[in-house]
Amino acid sequence: MTQTENPTKARAPRRRSRWNATDLGLIAVFAALVAGSALIAAIPVGGLGVPITLQTLAVMLTGLALGPARAFAAVGLYLLLGFAGLPIFSGGRSGLGVLAGPSAGYIIGFLLAATAVGWLAVVVLARTAKRTGKLRPILLFAAAMVSSIIFIHGLGILGMMVNAKLDFSKAFLADLAFYPGDIIKNVLAVSIALALHKAFPDLLLRRVRTADTRP
């Protein structure tokens, strides 16, 4: 090692921990939000009993507000607590037995959808940071719809095919009943997320700016 290398190494900044106390608090709060949304106004749809809840709203809001990593942690925490026995799945259900039911695909899809829309939200917020107008809400809504269609609805259909023994056409038709409500819930999720980012600009954009300027 030469003498000229020592000052450089001495000035090298230390890496900070990935999450601070605020991040952990947000993860816990949004996990509780997802849990609470599962228990409010659960309305069974069709003969399979897969319920309409406010979970899509809470899950998509979690991703739009927190970004991919923290959203994954929040929804993952919710799932772990439910699998461990807390009655926080729709209808007050709990345990691993929910994975044998027709709604199993939707439950797993929540985790992937929150992560995907969180990643897309980072991209949208970063690229529209200096722009005004209607582009940002439109792009965020598109991100929410794409994520929910691919992961929540896609895995939901697969779950009904596997656990309820439905063929694709019947599972697809059963899933269509959720689309009108999910469109409304995604609109609400985007509206709330935009309000949160306006009130708390550092909620996600700080991380975007930090990532853009990191050497």
Number of helices: 9
User: Any idea what the radius of gyration is?
Assistant: 20 Å
Number of domains: 1
Report the structural category. Answer: mainly alpha
Largest sheet: 2 strands, antiparallel
- CATH architecture tag: Orthogonal Bundle
Give the CATH class. Answer: Mainly Alpha
Strand proportion:
under 5%
Provide a concise account of the structure shown:
This protein is mainly α and 215 residues long. It has helices at residues 5-11, 21-39, 55-66, 68-84, 104-127, 135-163, 168-176, 179-199, 205-213; strands spanning 43-45, 50-52.
Fold and architecture overview:
By secondary structure, the protein is mostly helical. The chain is built from nine helices and two strands; from the N terminus they run ααββααααααα. Strands 1-2 form a two-stranded antiparallel ribbon. Helix 2 (21-39) packs antiparallel against helix 3 (55-66). The chain is globular and about 50 Å long.
